[in-house]
Amino acid sequence: MRNALVSFFLLFTFLPLLTEEVRASNAYYKVTYHYNIGDVFTTKENGIWRTAKILDIDTNEQSSTIHVLLYSNTKQKPTLASLDKLSILAYHSTIAHAHLEQKWLFIGNDTPLKAELKGYVNYLKHHDFNKYAEATNQKVDDLIFRANTLYTKGYALNQAAQYKQAIEAYQQAINIYPLYFEAIDNIGFAYMDMGDFQTAINYFDQSLQIHPKGITAQYYKGMCYINLEDYDSARKTFKHGIENFPEQSHVFEEIYNKLQQNAL
Which residue, 231, 229, 228, 253, is CA-closest to 240? Predict the structure, then answer.
């Protein structure tokens, strides 16, 4: 796991006192190229000024992505002093480093408030869970333990045919750990047990978005289509299974072949 990040609270409390050298060494307030957290930029497009504040900077050997807060568009060129009067258009968006370099004008630095980081924190929760835990001063192991406890509760409820209560427990686990595709799969199974196959498909699709290698979600998505007597969609789903999981293609081939024969 990456080195622990300083909590947002401490960052907001002590950031103004830090020198540039200390800030550059901070795990969260990285200095990448010549940009800093809190830098505010604006650009004019079609007579409208767009303004953004840098929340964080992700870099690797190939590229640099800048996470920003977007303010509402204005007809007048904004200033650092006018930011408080602008509403928030988007609490999280991204700008490529090259695009920022080419088209945006620097107008000053304004340290992000904790409330302004909520969109970025939510993004981290769904895309970089380790960094989310670090940024919110939590431990990944503790979060996973809480999610697993709720998952176990959901499984027991499902076994007792208390499907709605099971779904609620699984959903609580996902709220803690959004990448918990096994819990999402089990919500799909609960809806299958209740005979709501279309809703089950929606959850299997959600699971596959998070975990494209989810052979279980792919298989039972196809079975849901069969239960709905949508054999064309079932055939496509099992064909995708054969193509996407070549090492386990036999899991899908038998049913796919039967669907093909019935279609003739």
Answer: 253
